[in-house]
């Protein structure tokens, strides 16, 4: 890598853009100019991420950056592109989709390697179909908050660099205002990119895409006897690990279509997502998902189904049904191993696994589901169970049944040192998650020009395992009205 490609570190330096997806060529994207919004203004800037990327924070605060990241001007050196992909939506082949409102500004060389920078909501592209290419402030704040919440939890995700608002009207169920989120990821490639070239019968382009992804992100696969089967297995494993982390923290994605599945196993495309309040495995967070295809408990199975779509798309390259099925087989073992490890960690079982651990976990999850116990509060209080058992018992209506489980748990933990166990658990059971009602409150305030609740929420979500005593109100039970919040695909 040439040293001249690395952005210079001197103050107020603009980033040095490289063309994104350039190695792939014109079949993969279209050059697009953003469509300016009126009177752009900052809603939020992510100083921590700017530093990680090696971006100059002073430059990020500049008028040039505001106009560039609001899509009002093309930043010097940037060559924005929208990429083309297809996908299965709600289990049905949807044909060509593509970046209908996303523009990749380019790629930056960062201390962590190349990172793509993308605007969401900067106007129409050749892939907008009937859409307006815009995103509303409400959904953009949700995306900004949740990508940073996921990062704070240590769960792989695209990141949010900044958020610009505009008074320009956008019509959804009602008239709202526009916003543009700038998000970053090593790559925004999705399962749907592979499906696009495979279903179109363009197998040489499919091979080029797969080779690009292997060379850049999965170099070990190049050595395997069947590199494309190895890629499918590696993506299956990463996806399994991601799903285990979602299930352990109580995250519901809401629209797990294959076009929203990252080839890098990142949480991608924040729409009608939700962190569970009460633990309900049947919970459906997407108001538009009447059949419950993406209900919380179905997510791991849906991810596996999506991987089969990826496998199908890669078949012209893998060329062996056995090899493809074997690669996909890796998903289940990886998911179960990761979920068991995550749940044992949440219980503070920091010693070697014992034969009764799985039953202890399963029985607890059944009890939590039956009683609809608040997921985040239960697990956080459990960290202090050995010091303050009553606070946990209080969460249950059927106390005798919980007491019976708690007795087994105490016996299992008896030989573990209580304080180190508590500290271990506090690193695995967040005090703060982005509950729907907290997002709604921050959105309502931001709509009236008050960004303080958004900043307060971001502060705790960046470090969700810490106590933040001054922000304790954000760690409480959801208010009654939280249950009636309806989040649809409208964004
Ligand atoms: P989503 O359900 O948000 O993942 O979007 C599915 C597809 O619709 C993607 O191709 C998006 O780019 C596209 N899309 C969603 N909303 C809009 C919009 N307002 N304008 C243009 N395209 C959109
Ligand atoms: Mg999407």
Mean pLDDT comes to 96
How many separate domains? 3
Give the fraction of residues assigned to helices: 40-55%
Rg (CA only) = 23 Å
The structure class reads alpha+beta
Segments where pLDDT lies below 50 for 5+ residues?
Answer: 1-11
Q: What shape does the CA trace take?
A: globular
Q: How many H/I helices?
A: 16
SSE topology string: EEHHHEEEEEEHEEHHHEEHHHHHHHHH
- Percentage of β-strand residues: 5-15%
Bound molecule types: adenosine monophosphate, magnesium ion
The largest sheet is: 6 strands, antiparallel
How widely separated are the two ends? 39 Å
Number-wise, the strands total 12
Describe this structure in words.
The chain is an alpha+beta fold and 491 residues long. It has three domains: 3-187, no CATH class; 192-345; 349-426, no CATH class. Helix content is 41%, strand content 14%. It has 16 helices and twelve strands. It has helices spanning 47-53, 57-60, 63-69, 137-153, 191-199, 203-217, 227-249, 299-318, 321-346, 357-371, 375-382, 389-393, 399-413, 418-426, 436-447, 452-462, and strands at residues 29-31, 41-45, 81-83, 86-89, 92-96, 102-110, 113-120, 135-136, 159-171, 175-185, 251-252, 274-275. Strands 2, 6, 7, 8, 9 and 10 form a six-stranded antiparallel beta sheet that branches. Strands 1-3 form a two-stranded antiparallel ribbon. The chain has a two-stranded antiparallel ribbon with strand order 4-5. A hairpin with a 2-residue loop joins β6 and β7. α8 runs antiparallel to α9. The chain is globular, with a radius of gyration of 23 Å. It binds adenosine monophosphate and magnesium ion (MG). Magnesium ion binds at residues 259-260, 269.
């Amino acid at each position: 890598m040439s040293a001249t490609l690395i952005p210079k570190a001197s103050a107020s330096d603009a980033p040095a853009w490289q063309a994104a997806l350039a190695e792939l060529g014109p079949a993969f994207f279209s050059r697009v100019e953003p469509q300016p919004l009126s009177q752009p203004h900052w809603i939020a800037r992510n100083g921590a991420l700017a530093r990680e990327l090696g971006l100059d924070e002073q430059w990020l605060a500049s008028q040039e950056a505001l106009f560039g990241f609001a899509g009002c001007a093309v930043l010097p050196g940037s060559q924005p592109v929208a990429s083309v992909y297809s996908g299965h939506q709600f289990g049905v082949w949807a044909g060509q989709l593509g970046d209908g409102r996303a523009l990749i500004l380019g790629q930056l060389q960062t201390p962590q390697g190349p990172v793509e920078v993308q605007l969401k909501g900067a106007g129409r592209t050749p892939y907008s179909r009937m859409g307006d290419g815009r995103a509303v402030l409400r959904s953009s704040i949700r995306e900004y908050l949740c990508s940073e919440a996921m990062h704070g939890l240590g769960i792989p995700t695209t990141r949010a660099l900044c958020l610009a608002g505009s008074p320009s009207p956008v019509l959804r169920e009602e008239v709202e205002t526009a916003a543009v989120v700038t998000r970053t990821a090593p790559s925004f490639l999705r399962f749907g990119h592979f499906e696009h070239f495979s279903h179109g019968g363009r197998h040489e382009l499919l091979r080029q895409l797969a080779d690009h992804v292997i060379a850049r992100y999965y170099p070990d696969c190049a050595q395997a006897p069947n590199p494309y089967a190895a890629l499918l297995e590696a993506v299956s494993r990463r996806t399994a690990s991601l799903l285990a982390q979602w299930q352990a923290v109580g995250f519901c994605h809401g629209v797990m279509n294959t076009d929203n599945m990252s080839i890098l196993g990142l949480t991608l495309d924040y729409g009608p997502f939700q962190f569970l309040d009460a633990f309900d495995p049947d919970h459906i967070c997407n108001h538009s998902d009447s059949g419950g295809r993406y209900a919380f408990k179905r997510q791991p199975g849906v991810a596996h189904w999506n991987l089969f779509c990826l496998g199908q798309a890669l078949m012209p390259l893998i060329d062996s049904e056995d090899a493809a099925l074997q690669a996909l087989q890796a998903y289940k073992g990886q998911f179960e191993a990761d979920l068991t490890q995550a749940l044992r960690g949440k219980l503070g079982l920091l010693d070697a696994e014992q034969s009764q651990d799985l039953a202890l976990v399963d029985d607890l999850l059944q009890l939590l589901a039956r009683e609809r116990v608040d997921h985040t509060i239960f697990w956080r209080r459990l960290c202090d169970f050995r010091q303050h058992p009553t606070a946990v018992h209080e969460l249950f209506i059927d106390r005798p049944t919980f007491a019976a489980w708690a007795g087994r748990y105490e016996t299992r933990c008896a030989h573990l040192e209580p304080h180190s166990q508590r500290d271990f658990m506090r690193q695995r059971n967040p005090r703060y998650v982005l509950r729907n009602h907290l997002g709604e409150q921050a959105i309502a305030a931001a709509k009236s020009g008050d960004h303080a609740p958004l900043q307060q929420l971001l502060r705790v979500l960046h470090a969700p395992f810490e106590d933040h005593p001054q922000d304790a109100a954000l760690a409480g039970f959801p208010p009654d009205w939280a249950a009636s919040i309806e989040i649809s695909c409208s964004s």
